[in-house]
Amino acid sequence: MTPPLVPQFGVYPAIFAYIMLLAAGIFLWTKRDIVTIIFFAVSVAAAFSAGIITLTGITAVVLLGGLCFAGFKKIDRENNFFLHLLVKGLIAGLGFMMIFHLYPGFHNLQLLNKVQISEDAVPYSLFLNYDSMCVAIIIMFFNENLRLKADRGTLMAVRAGLLFGLLGVIVMGGTGLAMHFFKFDFKISSLTLLFLFCNLLFTCFFEETFWRGYVQNTIADYVKIDFVAVLITALVFGVIHIPFGGINFAVLAALAGLIYGYAYLRYRRLESCIVCHYTVNVTHFIFATYPILASAYKV
Q: Of 83, 96, 137, 282, which residue is most buried, by most CB within 10 angstroms?
């Protein structure tokens, strides 16, 4: 895993890079693709000057963009089945490496370092994951069906996300308590606003874009059975959480993946699964041990 950022020219160029990246994401709501490209390019340039991304990281960004262009725009699955499958697999593999910080060349800005949020929890560190956000923005840019939409369906998708989020709180909350994964711990602290902001943009947005928007959709395209795609994606989503919290965390993540996946499947809008995911995470942060009880960590 690449080390946290030590800014070369101060923290302000780094902050500017993140602001430009968020601006690129916001303009995905519009059809002004050239504006999105400009903001994204400025962000990468600023990130390079600040030491957030190196030439190796830029290579990954360009490569992912090229693969997405080929996979979404140029290669037809019906006429080039195996080539299409190969490209889609490469997108998944490279995206996975980037969101789990396995691809070198990125040095994400660290905001919190082993902070004790709950008294009997494992310490919590918070990064602004530039590499992960790049993955989400690039995939969404080339797959227009995934783009967040400012239309009449947005409010419906948000409402649905809240309802599915409530279901997730009940199911995962009950399961987590039964597994002694966490306990009730109500807290509003100086870190709450920071968490609310960062978790929405740097966790829920990119995770749902990648896992539900890309992985689940891609599997569904090939297996032709939507719920099988939801199940496979949820299982993989659970397994990859083992290093972050052990077996208990993996079980909860798989349950979460089922709920988030169905929220997306039901409405075909990323807004629904993003809001669902965010509702669960915020409830967990405010009302329960965060991130997990130290005694619950069992790999």
A: 137
